Amino acid sequence: MLPHVLPLVQLLLIEDTPDDARLLQEFVQNTQKPKFVLTWTRSLSSGLEHLAHTSFDIILLDLHLPDSVGRHTFTRAHRLVPHTPIIILSGTEDETLAIQVVRDGAQDYLLKGQVQRDELKRAINYAIERQRLLNELDTARQREQEAREILALEQLSQLTKTTITAQLYGLPPLRESAPDVFNLLMNRYQVLMENALEHRIYHVDQGVSKDLRTLADQLGFLKAGPRDVIELHTQALKSKINQVPLQKAQAYVEEGRLMVLELMGYLVTFYRSHAVLTSPSGEVQ
């Protein structure tokens, strides 16, 4: 039994030989279940441009193109769309190359001139299904990793009942003592996370470091400590990753690791520059 596939399949064919392309077009045009919508391009660069702007369900890729030859052809396409299944269509029976590209992530390696319509249809259906299952597995693994990271942060914030600063000043954690202020700071931190991600993607300076330093000063004046920073980061991260797709959630997690360390460092700098001696009652000596 064939796996369940999409009723309409968007297919990108990257093939420089017109006769081979026409034959493949005839194959897919005569197939009704699923129905294929085929886009044909003759070079890898043109194919990559299509992939950058359009979502496809599957790619049929010739490894020997005018602007790219061999294994590198697959690598470049797969790097751009790692979650889209790719079937290699080659005019050369190269067992070593076939093994290499399948190990690299290609779903299949078929020989042009030998593949028949039913075989091609079956290969496409199975490739789409296998990639779907792989994508679901990757999603589950990443969500599990995110959950473990957040759990670790929450456990870290609970290692002591009170923060170092609270021990010095007799104050409870900021989240308990001033929840409204904590939420305002958390919202500000979320904005900084968004700005940091934009800087990472588009290389546009958003002044994140300067704003983190300002946030650290605000935390310092509120006599916040390491636990408060961790709780601020954890709550902001949990809120963010629950609102966005998996890929962006993973980017928030990765960028957040750097941000929380930077914020912690700025808070330490604040306390060093505003160091005072206090009596047990909290009065300045």
3D architecture notes:
This protein is an alpha/beta fold and 285 residues long. The chain folds into 2 domains: 8-133, Rossmann fold, CATH 3.40.50.2300; 160-273, no CATH class. It is built from 11 helices and 7 strands. The protein has helices at 18-29, 44-53, 71-80, 95-104, 117-157, 164-169, 174-177, 179-202, 208-221, 226-241, 246-273, and strands spanning 8-14, 35-41, 58-61, 64-65, 68-69, 86-90, 108-111. It has a 5-stranded parallel beta sheet with strand order 2-1-3-6-7, sandwiched between helices. The longest helix has 41 residues, at 117-157. The termini are far apart.
Jot down its keywords.
alpha/beta; 11 helices; two-stranded antiparallel ribbon; single chain; Rossmann fold; 2 domains; five-stranded parallel β-sheet; disordered C terminus; 285 residues
CATH superfamily heading of the largest domain: Response regulator
How many structural units, i.e. domains? 2
Helix % is: 55-70%
- The CATH topology of the largest domain is given as Rossmann fold
CATH architecture assignment of the largest domain: 3-Layer(aba) Sandwich
From N to C, what is the helix and strand string?
EHEHEEEHEHEHHHHHHH
Query: Tell me about the biggest sheet?
Result: 5 strands, parallel
Average pLDDT confidence is 82
What are the low-pLDDT stretches, counting only 5+ consecutive residues below 50?
160-169, 276-285
- Radius of gyration (CA) equals 27 Å
Number of helical regions: 11
Based on secondary structure, the structural category is alpha/beta
What is the strand arrangement across the widest sheet? Answer: 2-1-3-6-7
CATH class of the largest domain: Alpha Beta
Shape: elongated
- Residues in β-strands, percent: 5-15%
What is the terminal separation in angstroms? 82 Å
